[in-house]
Specification:
Blueprint lengths: L9 H24 L3 H20 L3 H4 L7
Length: about 70
Amino acid sequence: MKKWTCNIGIGGRIFRGVLGAAMLATGLYLILKTDHAFWGCGLCTLGAFGIFEAIVGWCALRAMGVKSPF
């Protein structure tokens, strides 16, 4: 298996980590406290992926060639 190549800097990692944690917390709130479990599961999935990107230092969109400011 090929090792993940870091393609974002420290600013992008912090941004993705904070955004991922916020989406994960919001998703859990939607699942546990409201009747919007479908949207909550989607937010939890996106939040977990954002945290994964922050930990590994890899961005899926940048890997596909999309330029991002972070």
